[in-house]
Amino acid sequence: MKVKIGKYPNRLTCRIHTRYMDKKYGIVNWPTEYNRTERLLEQLEDAVQSVYNVFNWAWFDRRTQKVKVRIDRQDTWSMDHTLAHIILPMLQQLQKTKHGAPYVDPDDCPKDLRPKEQDEYGTDDTHFARWDWVLDEMIYAFDSKVNKEEVYMRFDIATERDAMQKEQERISNGFKLFGKYYEGLWD
Questions:
Q1: pLDDT tens per residue, range 71-89
Q2: pLDDT tens-digit series, residues 153-184
Q3: Does the N-terminal or the C-terminal CB of the chain have fewer CB atoms within 10 Å?
Q4: 3-state secondary structure string, the chain?
Q5: pTM greater than 0.90
């Protein structure tokens, strides 16, 4: 298998007004009425962006991300194991660099991560903790797939079958969560 994925194509964006407002008021607390300077900066940003949009249309919007994938026959013999080697480091990097969290159904998480009350943005006190827990479970499942022998080496012959079954249930749940929240895997 050989995979080569290029960078996403860039676009020109003017953020004169946006940067000014973020610096002055913060990212969320912009006023509904602008003063003269703020209106002027907004108009300037709109004018510059309209020029940028011509260049974006002519040059950047016609570019696509370059993706080359070559699959060898042996890559599909144990495709779940092959993909786990790719997915595991991507999940680990996402966990370190994430900037947000998608909605996670409280029923998918332990009881201590269930919401108590929501704030004005529709999130609650455990919103981000639920996503962290889901990512941890996915990483555990894919790590177990990559290092399968090590998972079962934790159990000796005398270990009860229940412990191994609970371990397998956790791994299977991690894969189920991966499928359910696949579209939430963004940074």
A1: 999 989 989 999 999 999 9
A2: 565 655 677 888 888 999 999 999 999 999 99
A3: C
A4: CEEEECCCCCCCCCCHHHHHHHHHHCCCCCCCCCCHHHHHHHHHHHHHHHHHHHHHHHCHHHCCCCEEEECCHHHHCCHHHHHHHHHHHHHHHHHHHCCCCCCCCHHHCCHHHCCCCECCCCCECCHHHHHHHHHHHHHHHHHHHHCHHHHHHCCCCCCCHHHHHHHHHHHHHHHHHHHHCHHHCCC
A5: no
